Fold:
Amino acid sequence: MTRPFRRRSEWLIMLAIATATMSCDGQAKEKHMDEPPALVDALIQQVRGSKSIDVHQIERAVGATLRQTDDSNASFAFYAAEGVRSGPYTLGVELRTPVRGGGATSGALLMLNLAGGCSRRADVEARYGPLILSQPPRADAPNAEAHWSRREPWGDLSFGFSALDPDCLTSVVFTLAQ
Structure:
């Protein structure tokens, strides 16, 4: 019968490998690839169907109340919700809508900030169609994202990938034409 670790050096190597693949909380650091959140699919279908975004529509879709923020002004009303769950993801939801008669020069904008999951760009492209690089990450921003986009009949659909982890989806932006 042989012993699993005959020498102390073998045991130390195995311990180093095990430690290198564990995070601070003892969970394996292996990158788990997830499907894009079901909420993203639902919102894309909803916007494609209605070609509009409003507060009540988004609240129903995400199952959370959007609160108006202090950033609102004469041209745009800003709303936000944090901690929205969709599968392994936790989403921050930000909505900007033009104020009627406020002189806004652009349409509504909906941004979903994603944390807790990882959808690869190839998987996002396979699901939503070909994407083009619309905004490379800024070199002067520590948490910069590269945005890959596609034109839709209602406006632009963009997917953000962090410069720190360029193959994990970190945001989805809906920009509606005015």
